[in-house]
From TrEMBL:
It comes from the Bacteria. Residues 53-69 have a biased composition (Polar residues). This is WG repeat-containing protein. Residues 40-50 have a biased composition (Basic and acidic residues). Residues 40-71 are annotated as: Disordered. Pfam families: WG_beta_rep.
Length: 674
């Protein structure tokens, strides 16, 4: 129930977050306490205001509040403390709601809901600028968002209005000058925001830039304008996008640059050339790389073995086996002294010097000493960037404790914060002297030598002899092993607890494990005693530890058995699934509910069953309403429910009969379907 209230609140915040501060000041904004709950005084004040029945005044310049005018009433402007409380509550709930928080790219941060797995965007102030209502996102700009819905792609604007139909198989570029590159029926084409498609006749195309796009006809490349007219003849072996008024082209193995009229302005003298970006372009001549400006002047000498594009004013360069970073003036701000690098993240540059890794800032100052054997991954969590050593004053301490990387050191793996201190759990890695090994789990790791497997502890002692045919697995204190193509179980000292005699065996889940012999399944306990004899076609015992019930199939029919093997009710169902209070069953292609004794609590007559996992949000309306859809057979949508009913604490399930929905809780009580 708590989750539901938080989710309803978050829906309200989604609506509010798209309104500017000025607009908020012109309408009613609720007050919330530090836990995100409406204050009693605020509720009382709202009731008093509603009794006045005054119309809501909508600012003429604010289309986003037009719909709100039908549901809110005019009140005095919100106080600054109310706005602060709302902002604080919004940020707490943003963190609560989101399952994935992407890195800030410009002013956009891709986010995913942990409840329905839909995607949207936040801005740098944590305001939702695109509702969490889409299956996928890409090629987004502040004006147009590339979105995926029901398996297809298109673009919407900031208000969520579709500007390029959501009907394409893929998106291949952002909207540039009102035109995007998309894929439809296996072919890349152009489409503008008026819906006009063109460019299907070409063998290949590149996205529009500065009003022109390179296209391939036959084996040669030329350029078209936004009307689709060929304005620069197709005569080049390759051609790329315009930048700073120039486009790189290649003829007879040499590259140069043309202007928008097709005139060659930088000669075809380079072995390769890139697109101009912020006044610089990468070029290669005789195996060495550097940068030129739009006048063709070499501004950064062609002396490097490799160069990257500039990002935030820095470019990675390599020379004679060493790597570093240069600025746009060509100065090495991170000297070419390092042997390897990892991608920069939030101002932290992971560099390797000799055997060890450390972190530098953008000026080359050491932030975290060279001490790590490996940087496994860097996290996209913003951390402060200070020149040299980072101070540990109280003002910055909270952000300094944010994890920035997963690292290996002295055969241990752990997470470090911005000070280089361990903030995550540690585990032993990389056992030496073995052909293969696994991470340590529950203090043990599997190791392989000469094709045989065993186990070691964190001290490196062999605890399971290296003599088994497959990787051993430990669960619930017992280790599953394979020998002579049979399975059994050992304890952590290597002693056989359950004989190695089964054709198949699952890991123990608490006290039980499925085992198979001669094509039939049974269940054993941790002493090896048969709980269910080996005679069943299939057994489901997930969550069996909760109620000591097993779901077993015999001769194509399912029944429920207790831990002594006794049938609780007869073996007759075509399918069966657990619910919080009993079982969801299928008989003669019809579905219904029975309780734990086998009593029918929802008649077995429905064509389909749809649990909450079968639902997904297809849109967000106002504060009170969410649009829901039910999916059947893949992505086919066969009914839309405008409001998601309030779920009882025990949970609920939808049944379908003759294309009409019926809603019940798991106790069999029929509920109202909105």
């Amino acid at each position: 129930m708590k989750n539901l209230s938080v989710k309803r609140f978050f829906i309200a915040l989604i609506s509010i977050s798209t309104i500017t501060v000025q607009q908020i000041n012109a309408q009613y904004v609720p007050a919330y306490d530090k836990n995100g709950v409406r204050t009693s005084s605020d509720k009382a004040a709202e009731e008093a205001r509603n009794k006045q029945n005054k119309p809501f005044v909508t600012p003429k310049s604010s289309p986003s509040t037009t719909e709100a005018a039908t549901t809110r009433r005019y009140v005095a402007p919100a106080s600054s403390s109310q706005l602060k409380e709302l902002a604080d509550a919004k940020r707490r709930l943003v963190v609560y709601e989101l399952g994935f928080l992407g890195e800030l790219n410009g002013n956009l941060r891709m986010v995913q809901s942990r409840f329905n797995y839909n995607w949207g965007y936040l801005n740098s102030d944590d305001d939702i600028v695109l509702s969490l209502a889409y299956d996928g996102l890409k090629f987004s700009t502040p004006s147009y968002f590339g979105v995926k819905k029901f398996g297809y792609w298109g673009f919407v604007d900031q208000a969520g209005k579709v500007v390029i139909s959501i009907k394409y198989d893929d998106l291949n570029s952002e909207v540039n000058g009102g035109i995007a590159m998309v894929t439809r029926m296996g072919k890349k084409i152009f489409v503008d925001i008026a819906g006009t498609e063109f460019g299907r006749e070409y063998n290949d195309i590149h996205q529009f830039s500065e009003g022109l796009a390179s296209v391939k006809t036959g084996k040669l490349w030329g350029f078209i304008d936004k009307s689709g007219k060929m304005v620069i003849p197709a005569k080049y072996d390759s051609a790329d996008a315009f930048g700073n008024g120039l486009a790189p082209v290649k003829m007879k193995g040499k590259s140069g640059y043309i202007n928008a009229s097709g005139k060659l302005v930088i000669p075809l003298i380079y072995d390769d050339a890139s697109v101009f970006y912020n006044g610089l372009a990468k070029v290669i001549l005789n195996g060495k790389s550097g940068f030129i400006d739009p006048n063709g002047k070499v501004v950064i000498a062609l002396k490097y073995d490799r160069v990257s594009f500039f990002k935030d004013g820095l470019a990675l360069v390599s020379q004679k086996g060493k790597v570093g970073y240069i600025n746009t003036l060509g100065y090495a701000v991170i000297p070419l002294l390092y042997d390897d690098y990892k991608a920069e993240s939030n101002g932290y540059f992971a560099m390797k010097k000799g055997k060890y890794w450390g972190f530098l800032d953008k000026n080359g100052a050491i932030l975290i000493d060279f001490q790590f054997d490996e940087i496994v991954t860097s996290f996209n969590i913003p951390a402060p960037n200070y020149p040299g050593k980072i101070p540990e004053d109280g003002h910055t301490l909270l952000r300094l404790r944010s994890p920035i990387a997963l690292v290996n050191k002295d055969h241990e793996q752990f997470t470090i914060d911005a000070r280089g201190k361990m903030v995550g759990s540690s585990k032993i890695i990389s056992p030496t002297g073995y052909d293969k090994f696994t991470p340590f789990i529950n203090e043990v790791a599997a190791v392989s030598l000469n094709g045989k497997w065993g186990m070691i502890n964190k001290k490196g002692d062999v605890i399971i002899p290296i003599e088994y045919e497959s990787e051993p697995y430990e669960a619930s204190g017992l280790v599953k092993v394979k020998l002579s193509n049979k399975f059994g179980f050992l304890d952590k000292t290597g002693k056989i607890v359950i004989p190695i005699k089964y054709d198949e065996a699952d890991l123990f889940s608490d006290n039980f494990a499925r085992v198979k012999t001669n094509g039939k399944w049974g269940v054993i306990d941790k002493t090896g005693k048969a709980v269910l004899e080996m005679k069943y076609d299939e057994i489901k015992f997930e969550l069996a530890h909760i109620d000591d019930r097993f779901l077993a199939q015999l001769n194509g029919k399912w029944s429920v058995l207790d831990k002594s093997g006794k049938e609780i009710f007869e073996n007759k169902y075509d399918n069966i699934e657990r619910t919080p209070t009993g079982f969801l069953v299928q008989l003669n292609s019809k579905w219904g509910l029975i309780d734990k004794t086998g009593k029918e609590i929802v008649e077995i007559k429905y064509d389909e069953k749809c649990q909450e996992a079968d639902f997904f949000i297809i849109g967000l309306n106002d504060v009170e309403t969410r649009s829901w859809a039910i999916k059947k057979y893949g992505n086919k949508i066969f009914q839309i429910i405008r409001e998601r009913p309030k779920s009882p604490e025990i949970g609920m399930i939808y049944f379908l009969l003759d294309n009409k929905f019926y809603l019940f809780d798991y106790n069999g009580k029929k509920l109202k379907l909105n």
